[in-house]
Amino acid sequence: MDVALILKVAGVGILVSACHQILSRAGREDQAMLVSIAGTVIVLVLLAQKIGELFEAIRVIFGI
Question: Where are the domains of the chain?
Answer without folding.
Answer: 3-62
